[in-house]
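mind reviewing both lines:
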Amino acid sequence: MATRLPTYYVSHGGGPWPYMPDMAPTMAKLKSSLESHVRELGDRPKAVLVISGHWEEREFTVSSSPTPPMIYDYGGFPAHTYRIQYSAPGDPALAKRVQGLLQEAGIPSRLDSQRGYDHGTFVPLAVMFPEADVPVVQLSLRMDFDPAAHLAVGRAIAPLRDEGVLIVGSGVSYHNLRQFGPTGRGASLKFDAWLQDVLIGRSPEDRTDQLVHWTEAPAARLAHPREEHLLPLMVAVGAAHDEAGACVYHEDDFFGSLAVSSFRFGRMAS
């Protein structure tokens, strides 16, 4: 693949929804958007690197198992959702490449040969690549949640975009589970409006500065009391540092009342 790939920050929705038919109406717009991301790529990527909001470590960590197991990191769902198998292979060579790029940038990191697919990884990929035939490597968040550090990680791994690797930050643009309904609507709208302005309407330099200081955004801590579902965005933006952003999914009635969005960074092939 000779074309530089874009990067994505996607919503992974609620729980193991692709495996629950009763959730299909709620997730219909999200499902359509995830499917469209693959179509717009044209050629299939050689591999996918996922930064999931469900994996945190003391230092940046890269999954290196050739056959990652499953992690059912959710509760209260039907029994069959704890038997899901997403059988995409890992890619130990890519894992070492990611670690090497981080080391070249002076960013400490390590490999984890045991880490499996959490639902921040296998849920969106089950829609994007349902045949599970594209190798997948995961990159953790660093648990200090320093936005500048995550932007720097994105810049460090940017060369992967020219090597056929699709970089996907997986989270949710509004993630306050205590106000996941009508009481959260106002905050989700305010924070989403800020994201749209910063990610699409600002220069790359201003965009980076705004993201470093994201806690100053309108309703920031109401939208993300804990920012693990936002930090994958920083990596996706960092990997497309000077390229434009576009909103590729938006609805303002998610679960009946919430505004959520997904974004792409970098130009598509003409």
